[in-house]
Protein backbone atom coordinates (compact mmCIF):
# COMPACT_ATOMS: atom_id res chain seq x y z
CA UNK A 1 0.00 0.00 0.00
CA UNK A 2 1.24 3.48 -0.88
CA UNK A 3 0.65 6.52 1.34
CA UNK A 4 -0.53 9.34 -0.86
CA UNK A 5 -1.74 12.05 1.51
CA UNK A 6 0.63 14.39 3.35
CA UNK A 7 -2.14 14.66 5.96
CA UNK A 8 -1.64 11.04 6.96
CA UNK A 9 -1.04 10.95 10.74
CA UNK A 10 2.20 9.02 10.44
CA UNK A 11 3.58 11.27 7.70
CA UNK A 12 2.62 14.38 9.66
CA UNK A 13 4.61 13.05 12.61
CA UNK A 14 7.65 12.45 10.40
CA UNK A 15 7.31 15.87 8.77
CA UNK A 16 7.05 17.60 12.15
CA UNK A 17 10.17 15.84 13.42
CA UNK A 18 12.15 16.64 10.27
CA UNK A 19 11.08 20.29 10.30
CA UNK A 20 11.84 20.90 13.98
CA UNK A 21 14.99 18.83 14.31
CA UNK A 22 13.48 16.71 17.07
CA UNK A 23 12.61 13.06 17.40
CA UNK A 24 9.20 11.65 16.55
CA UNK A 25 6.73 10.81 19.31
CA UNK A 26 8.27 7.31 19.32
CA UNK A 27 11.77 8.66 19.88
CA UNK A 28 12.97 8.09 16.32
CA UNK A 29 15.37 10.36 14.43
CA UNK A 30 14.60 11.29 10.82
CA UNK A 31 17.62 11.06 8.52
CA UNK A 32 17.41 12.05 4.87
CA UNK A 33 19.10 10.38 1.94
CA UNK A 34 20.68 7.06 0.98
CA UNK A 35 24.12 8.06 2.26
CA UNK A 36 22.92 8.36 5.86
CA UNK A 37 21.02 5.10 5.48
CA UNK A 38 24.21 3.37 4.37
CA UNK A 39 26.14 4.91 7.26
CA UNK A 40 23.44 3.85 9.73
CA UNK A 41 23.64 0.25 8.54
CA UNK A 42 27.26 0.17 9.74
CA UNK A 43 26.66 1.80 13.08
CA UNK A 44 25.28 1.35 16.59
CA UNK A 45 21.91 2.88 15.71
CA UNK A 46 19.04 0.73 14.45
CA UNK A 47 17.13 1.36 11.23
CA UNK A 48 13.43 1.09 12.11
CA UNK A 49 11.59 2.25 8.98
CA UNK A 50 12.40 3.64 5.55
CA UNK A 51 10.12 5.93 3.57
CA UNK A 52 10.63 5.92 -0.17
CA UNK A 53 8.86 6.50 -3.46
CA UNK A 54 8.40 3.95 -6.23
CA UNK A 55 11.33 5.54 -8.04
CA UNK A 56 13.46 5.55 -4.90
CA UNK A 57 12.70 1.89 -4.28
CA UNK A 58 13.90 0.93 -7.74
CA UNK A 59 16.96 3.18 -7.58
CA UNK A 60 18.14 1.94 -4.18
CA UNK A 61 16.66 -1.54 -4.23
CA UNK A 62 19.78 -3.36 -2.99
CA UNK A 63 20.49 -0.84 -0.24
CA UNK A 64 16.89 -0.98 0.99
CA UNK A 65 16.91 -4.75 1.02
CA UNK A 66 20.18 -4.81 2.94
CA UNK A 67 18.57 -2.73 5.69
CA UNK A 68 15.98 -5.43 6.46
CA UNK A 69 13.81 -2.62 7.81
CA UNK A 70 10.14 -1.95 7.17
CA UNK A 71 9.70 -0.15 3.84
CA UNK A 72 6.90 2.42 3.65
CA UNK A 73 5.92 3.41 0.11
CA UNK A 74 4.99 7.08 -0.29
CA UNK A 75 3.79 8.95 -3.36
CA UNK A 76 6.15 11.50 -4.87
CA UNK A 77 3.94 14.41 -3.88
CA UNK A 78 3.49 13.23 -0.29
CA UNK A 79 7.23 12.53 0.03
CA UNK A 80 8.09 16.04 -1.15
CA UNK A 81 5.77 17.45 1.51
CA UNK A 82 7.43 15.41 4.26
CA UNK A 83 11.13 15.85 3.43
CA UNK A 84 12.80 18.96 4.82
CA UNK A 85 15.26 19.30 1.93
CA UNK A 86 15.25 18.83 -1.82
CA UNK A 87 18.25 16.51 -1.60
CA UNK A 88 16.63 13.64 0.28
CA UNK A 89 16.82 11.60 -2.95
CA UNK A 90 13.51 9.91 -2.22
CA UNK A 91 14.75 8.13 0.91
CA UNK A 92 13.82 9.04 4.49
CA UNK A 93 15.10 6.85 7.32
CA UNK A 94 13.68 6.51 10.82
CA UNK A 95 16.49 5.62 13.22
CA UNK A 96 16.53 4.67 16.87
CA UNK A 97 19.66 6.10 18.54
CA UNK A 98 21.70 3.89 20.79
CA UNK A 99 21.46 4.83 24.46
CA UNK A 100 25.01 4.90 25.79
CA UNK A 101 25.74 4.04 29.41
CA UNK A 102 27.74 6.45 31.61
CA UNK A 103 30.56 3.91 31.71
CA UNK A 104 30.80 3.85 27.91
CA UNK A 105 30.98 7.64 27.76
CA UNK A 106 33.09 8.65 30.75
CA UNK A 107 35.42 5.84 31.69
CA UNK A 108 38.59 4.43 30.17
CA UNK A 109 41.34 6.50 28.53
CA UNK A 110 38.91 9.17 27.50
CA UNK A 111 39.27 11.72 24.76
CA UNK A 112 36.00 13.60 24.98
CA UNK A 113 34.65 16.64 23.18
CA UNK A 114 32.15 18.88 24.97
CA UNK A 115 29.97 21.26 22.98
CA UNK A 116 29.01 24.21 25.17
CA UNK A 117 25.89 25.70 23.53
CA UNK A 118 27.16 25.09 19.99
CA UNK A 119 24.01 25.97 18.06
CA UNK A 120 25.15 25.94 14.45
CA UNK A 121 24.38 22.45 13.11
CA UNK A 122 27.13 22.70 10.50
CA UNK A 123 29.76 23.49 13.11
CA UNK A 124 28.51 20.77 15.44
CA UNK A 125 28.43 18.18 12.67
CA UNK A 126 31.95 19.07 11.55
CA UNK A 127 33.20 18.70 15.12
CA UNK A 128 31.63 15.25 15.37
CA UNK A 129 33.17 14.21 12.07
CA UNK A 130 36.60 15.36 13.26
CA UNK A 131 36.05 13.68 16.62
CA UNK A 132 35.61 10.31 14.96
CA UNK A 133 38.46 10.91 12.51
CA UNK A 134 40.96 11.72 15.25
CA UNK A 135 40.02 9.07 17.77
CA UNK A 136 37.70 10.79 20.24
CA UNK A 137 35.98 8.34 22.56
CA UNK A 138 32.79 10.33 23.10
CA UNK A 139 30.90 13.60 22.79
CA UNK A 140 29.07 15.67 25.40
CA UNK A 141 26.27 17.93 24.12
CA UNK A 142 25.85 20.46 26.91
CA UNK A 143 22.53 22.26 27.37
CA UNK A 144 21.81 24.76 24.62
CA UNK A 145 23.65 22.82 21.94
CA UNK A 146 22.08 21.60 18.71
CA UNK A 147 20.07 18.41 19.01
CA UNK A 148 21.36 15.22 17.43
CA UNK A 149 18.02 14.86 15.62
CA UNK A 150 18.63 18.07 13.66
CA UNK A 151 18.73 17.21 9.97
CA UNK A 152 21.48 19.68 9.06
CA UNK A 153 23.59 18.33 11.92
CA UNK A 154 23.11 14.75 10.75
CA UNK A 155 24.19 15.63 7.23
CA UNK A 156 27.21 17.59 8.44
CA UNK A 157 28.31 14.75 10.73
CA UNK A 158 28.07 12.41 7.71
CA UNK A 159 27.19 9.43 9.90
CA UNK A 160 29.88 9.86 12.57
CA UNK A 161 27.28 10.49 15.29
CA UNK A 162 25.91 7.00 14.60
CA UNK A 163 29.16 5.50 15.89
CA UNK A 164 30.35 7.80 18.69
CA UNK A 165 29.17 7.47 22.29
CA UNK A 166 27.41 10.65 23.38
CA UNK A 167 25.42 12.33 26.13
CA UNK A 168 22.83 14.97 25.21
CA UNK A 169 21.42 17.87 27.25
CA UNK A 170 23.69 17.60 30.29
CA UNK A 171 24.13 20.79 32.34
CA UNK A 172 27.47 22.31 33.29
CA UNK A 173 27.25 21.29 36.94
CA UNK A 174 26.72 17.61 36.13
CA UNK A 175 29.37 17.72 33.45
CA UNK A 176 31.95 19.07 35.89
CA UNK A 177 30.97 16.47 38.48
CA UNK A 178 31.32 13.58 36.02
CA UNK A 179 34.65 14.85 34.71
CA UNK A 180 36.00 15.22 38.25
CA UNK A 181 34.78 11.82 39.42
CA UNK A 182 36.31 10.11 36.40
CA UNK A 183 39.58 12.07 36.66
CA UNK A 184 39.18 13.69 33.26
CA UNK A 185 41.21 16.85 32.74
CA UNK A 186 39.13 19.53 31.02
CA UNK A 187 40.63 21.96 28.50
CA UNK A 188 38.72 25.03 27.36
CA UNK A 189 39.55 26.15 23.82
CA UNK A 190 39.82 29.94 23.87
CA UNK A 191 41.56 32.60 21.79
CA UNK A 192 43.59 33.73 24.83
CA UNK A 193 44.41 30.47 26.56
CA UNK A 194 46.98 30.30 29.36
CA UNK A 195 48.84 27.59 27.43
CA UNK A 196 49.14 26.46 23.83
CA UNK A 197 47.32 23.26 22.91
CA UNK A 198 50.65 21.65 22.04
CA UNK A 199 51.97 22.31 25.57
CA UNK A 200 49.37 20.26 27.46
CA UNK A 201 49.24 16.49 27.87
CA UNK A 202 46.39 15.19 25.75
CA UNK A 203 47.54 11.59 26.00
CA UNK A 204 45.81 11.14 29.35
CA UNK A 205 42.05 11.17 29.94
CA UNK A 206 40.83 14.61 28.92
CA UNK A 207 37.97 16.60 27.44
CA UNK A 208 38.19 19.45 24.93
CA UNK A 209 35.49 22.08 25.51
CA UNK A 210 34.36 24.18 22.56
CA UNK A 211 32.15 27.19 23.21
CA UNK A 212 29.24 28.96 21.61
CA UNK A 213 29.94 30.70 18.30
CA UNK A 214 29.24 34.14 19.78
CA UNK A 215 29.46 33.96 23.57
CA UNK A 216 32.28 31.43 23.84
CA UNK A 217 32.63 29.08 26.79
CA UNK A 218 30.47 29.75 29.84
CA UNK A 219 32.10 31.25 32.94
CA UNK A 220 31.39 28.26 35.18
CA UNK A 221 33.22 25.93 32.80
CA UNK A 222 36.12 28.35 32.33
CA UNK A 223 36.52 28.47 36.10
CA UNK A 224 36.98 24.69 36.25
CA UNK A 225 39.04 24.06 33.11
CA UNK A 226 42.55 24.78 31.90
CA UNK A 227 42.29 27.34 29.11
CA UNK A 228 44.30 26.55 25.98
CA UNK A 229 44.67 28.23 22.63
CA UNK A 230 45.82 27.49 19.11
CA UNK A 231 48.52 29.81 17.77
CA UNK A 232 47.49 31.88 14.75
CA UNK A 233 48.92 34.64 12.55
CA UNK A 234 46.98 37.88 11.94
CA UNK A 235 43.70 36.23 12.99
CA UNK A 236 42.38 36.72 16.52
CA UNK A 237 40.14 33.65 16.69
CA UNK A 238 39.14 30.58 14.75
CA UNK A 239 35.78 29.11 13.87
CA UNK A 240 34.63 26.73 16.63
CA UNK A 241 34.71 23.68 14.37
CA UNK A 242 38.15 24.56 12.97
CA UNK A 243 39.62 25.14 16.43
CA UNK A 244 38.22 21.90 17.83
CA UNK A 245 39.38 19.93 14.80
CA UNK A 246 42.93 21.25 15.19
CA UNK A 247 42.90 20.43 18.91
CA UNK A 248 41.67 16.91 18.16
CA UNK A 249 44.45 16.45 15.63
CA UNK A 250 46.99 17.48 18.27
CA UNK A 251 45.49 14.89 20.63
CA UNK A 252 45.67 12.29 17.88
CA UNK A 253 49.38 13.03 17.33
CA UNK A 254 50.17 12.77 21.03
CA UNK A 255 48.29 9.51 21.41
CA UNK A 256 49.78 7.75 18.39
CA UNK A 257 53.46 8.48 18.94
CATH topology of the largest domain: Alpha/beta knot
Beta-strand percent range: 15-25%
Shape: elongated
How do the strands of the widest beta sheet line up side by side? 8-7-6-11-9-12-10
Instruction: Please tally the helical runs, counting DSSP H or I stretches of 4 or more residues.
Output: 11
Q: Give the helices and strands as they follow along the chain.
A: EHEHEHHEHEHEHEHEHEEEHEH
Largest sheet: 7 strands, parallel
Residue-averaged pLDDT: 94
Report the span from N to C terminus.
57 Å
List the uncertain runs.
Answer: none
- Level of helix content? 25-40%
Which terms summarize this structure?
elongated, 7-stranded parallel sheet, 5-stranded mixed sheet, 257 residues, 11 helices, 60s Ribosomal Protein L30, Chain: A, alpha/beta, Alpha/beta knot
Tell me about this structure:
The chain is α/β, with parallel strands linked by helices and 257 residues long. It has two domains: 2-96, 60s Ribosomal Protein L30, Chain: A (2-Layer Sandwich); 102-255, 3-Layer(aba) Sandwich (Alpha/beta knot). The protein is 38% helix and 22% strand. The chain is built from eleven helices and twelve strands. The chain has helices spanning 9-20, 34-41, 54-59, 61-67, 76-82, 102-106, 121-133, 151-157, 172-181, 219-224, 240-255; strands at residues 2-3, 29-32, 46-52, 70-74, 91-96, 111-116, 138-142, 166-170, 185-189, 195-196, 206-211, 226-229. Helix 7 runs parallel beside helix 8 and helix 7 runs parallel beside helix 11.
Amino acid sequence: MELTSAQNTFLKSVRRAAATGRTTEDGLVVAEGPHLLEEALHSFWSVEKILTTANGFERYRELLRASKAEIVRVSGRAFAAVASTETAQEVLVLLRPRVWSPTEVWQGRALLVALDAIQDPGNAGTIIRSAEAFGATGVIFLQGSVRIANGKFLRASAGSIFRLPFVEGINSKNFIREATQNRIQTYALTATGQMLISEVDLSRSCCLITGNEGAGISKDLLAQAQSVSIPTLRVESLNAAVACSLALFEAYKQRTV
